[in-house]
Amino acid sequence: MSISYDVTQSNRPFVRAIHTPVKGRAWYHVAGLQRSTPLKHYLETRLLARDGIRRVLANPVTGNILVHFDAAKGDVGDRSTH
């Protein structure tokens, strides 16, 4: 599946951290996720394939994504930006 989103017209970041102080868990807001079930499935599949990511819940209603990860392997941002 190929998904492409043009975020160059916006000055808002594509992914914005909402809540990260709990080790091993982070909430993010993802531009384009609202009302996009294909992007929900894409993000969940791709992130779960990353080493150390344990669980991913993307919500196309809110546009937010919850990522559970192995905190001993570092910050989730180190793995989710590729």
CATH topology descriptor: Alpha-Beta Plaits
How are strands sequenced across the largest beta sheet? Answer: 1-2-4-3
**Helicity level:** 10-25%
SSE arrangement, N to C: EEHEEH
CATH class: Alpha Beta
* Main sheet: strands, sense, barrel: 4 strands, antiparallel
- Relative strand content: 25-35%
Structural class of the helix and strand makeup? alpha+beta
Q: Termini distance? A: 17 Å
Oligomer: single chain
Q: How many structural domains?
A: 1
Q: Could you describe the 3D structure shown?
A:
The protein is α+β, with helices and mostly antiparallel strands and 82 residues long. It has a single domain, classed as Alpha-Beta Plaits. 20% of the residues lie in helices and 29% in strands. It has 2 helices and 4 strands. The protein has a 4-stranded antiparallel sheet with strand order 1-2-4-3. The longest helix has 12 residues, at 37-48. The protein is globular. The model has no long low-confidence stretch (mean pLDDT 84).
